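Slack export, channel: ligand-projects

TW: morning all. Re-posting the request from yesterday since it got buried. We need the structure predicted with the small molecule present, not the apo form. The ligand is zinc ion; the SMILES is in the block with the sequence. No rush, but it would help planning for next week.
GE: picking it up
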Amino acid sequence: MADECTHLDTIRRVTPSAKGCEECLAIGSPWVHLRLCRTCGHVGCCDSSPNMHATKHFHKTGHPISEGYDPPEGWGYCYVDEAFVDLDSPTPQRGPIPKFV
Ligand SMILES: [Zn+2]
Ligand SMILES: [Zn+2]
Ligand SMILES: [Zn+2]
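GE: finished. pasting the full token output, ligand included:
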């Protein structure tokens, strides 16, 4: 595991913005896995999903760390350093995840 991430001090406790990928829910699109932004709480979908909203969120905002979120597994990924990071406190889900698949 690469551990060269220099953004660990940007990790915050956040409130998830939605139970599933915000943008996919809005357009009725399926996703594969969810990612939670640990800077602002945006919930997006992973790069295996058709719309890759978590990566788009990073490009739009520069928020570096996203957490694997379906379910929370205690790891995060830094888009800037392309490194996985350990999270001390996985974010609890707000409720059952809506599924399209
Ligand atoms: Zn980093
Ligand atoms: Zn999405
Ligand atoms: Zn964010």
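GE: first-pass observations. The mean pLDDT is 93. The longest helix spans residues 53-61.
TW: perfect, thank you
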